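Supplementary Methods S3. Complex input for the pyridoxal-5'-phosphate-bound model.
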Amino acid sequence: HLPTAELQALDAAHHMHPFTTNDELAEKGARIITRADGIYLTDSEGNEILDAMAGLWCVNIGYGRDEIAEVAARQMRELPYYNTFFMTSHVPVIALAKKISELAPGDLNHVFFAGSGSEANDTNIRMVRHYWAEKGKPNKSVIISRHNAYHGSSVGSGSLGGMSGMHAQGGLPIPDIHHIEQPHWWAEGGDMDPEEFGVQRAKELEKAILELGEDRVAAFIAEPVQGAGGVIVPPASYWPEIQRICDNYEILLIADEVICGFGRTGNWFGSETMGIRPDIMTIAKGLSSGYAPIGGSVVSDEIASVIGGSEFNHGYTYSGHPVAAAVALENLRILEEENVITQVRDVTGPYLKEQWESLVDHPLVGEAKIVGMMGSIALVPNKNSRAPFSEAGTAGFICRERCFANNLVMRHVGDRMIISPPLVITTEEIDVLISRARLALDECYAELQK
Ligand code: PLP
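Predicted complex, serialized as C-alpha cells:
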C-alpha cells in the first residue's frame, strides 16, 4: 500500500470520521491499522499494538479467526443476500434466532434483527410504543433513560442516550424521552453510603414515573453496566430497586446489552450478572465479535405475540443479513465450544480484576472498577480526594496518547481510562496490558507535574 503519510493525507482529505475533528486529522494523521491477530493490531508502520478495547468493545473472540472468514465466504457463495420482509426467511437467520433464544434469559425467545445497536434501539422505541398502543394504552409513550448513557448515534438512539454533546447537534432528543441521573457513586455520591446512594438513584425512576404519570411511561432503558459513559458499575442496591419499580408500575425494562452481552461481564448477558429480568435486550457488537455488522432486539413471548398481532411497519434491508447471521452463529459457536465465557468468569476475569485493581496504588489513580472484562480507572489530581481535575479531560487525553506511544489502546472518557479487551486475552497478555498501562500512567503523571 501507499506510504503512511500519503494514506493519512488521503484519509484527511476524503474520509469523514466519527467523533473526530478535521484539525486533528490534518495535524496528526489517523493511525492506519492494516492487520490484526488475537489481541494485537498492526499499523502501517509495523507497530504491534495491544488492543485493550477490542475495537469498540466488540471483538470478543479476538482478531484473525479463519473459521469466521470461511463461513462468510461460503455464505457469500451460497446466498449473499436475501431479505426477511414479506414472508421470506433463510437458514442462517433461522438458526441464529433459535440460538440467541436459547442463550437469552427467561422467555426472551424472539429476535428482531437490525444492522447495528443504534438501529436495534430505534426498533425498541417504536416497538414499545406500538406494544402499548396495541394493548389499548396509546398514551404510554415516554421512555426513561439516564444522563451520560450511550445507546447509539441515530436520531432515536441518540435521543435515548444522555450525552449532552450529542443532543446539542441536530435537535435531539425526540419527544417523549426523559432522562434521570446515573448511579455513579464515585463522582456524584458525596458522603453518602454507596448502597444508600444506589437506592436513591433508583428511586429517581419512581419519582419520574409519578411526575410524568404512570399511564404515560412505556419503558426504562439502561445498560446493566454503563460502558461508554465511563464503565460505571452501579452499587449492588441499584438494580433490585429498579426491577421492583418497573414491576410495580408496569414499565417495560430494556437492558441495552450491546456492550455487556456475549460474555463481557463473565456471563452470556450483563442482565444475568446484575440479576435483572428484562423484557427486551438490545444486542450487537459481541454478537458477531464485530466480524460483520449485526444487531437486534430480543423480546419476550408476550411482546412478540402483541407486536405480531398486526403488521409492525418496521424493518431494515439488512435485518437478518445472511452473511452477518452466519458469521454471528459461528462466533457464538466459538464462544461456546471454546468455553470463552467460563474462562472469563473463572480464570482470566478474576486475574484481570486483581491486576486492574492494583492500579489504585498509582499516584494518579483514585478508583479502579471492573466487572468481567470491562474496567475503568479514575485519574485524579489528589489521591486523598474524589475531586476531579479543574480542566476535565486533559489528563485522560494525555494518558490515552501515552498509551498509544506505548503500543496500547485504552480509551478515555473525560478523565476515566477504560479497558474492554478481547475475551480471549490470556493471563500473560494481561500482564503486558497492565505493565504498559502503568508505564503510560507514569508518563502521564510526569507530564502533568511539569
Ligand atoms: N448501545 C450501547 C450500550 C453502545 O455502547 C453502543 C455503541 O457503542 C450502541 C448501543 C450503538 O451501537 P452501534 O454503534 O452498533 O450502532
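Residues 56, 116-118, 121, 150-152, 223, 227-228, 256, 258-259, 284, 295 surround pyridoxal-5'-phosphate (CB under 6 Å). The two ends are 40 Å apart (CA to CA).
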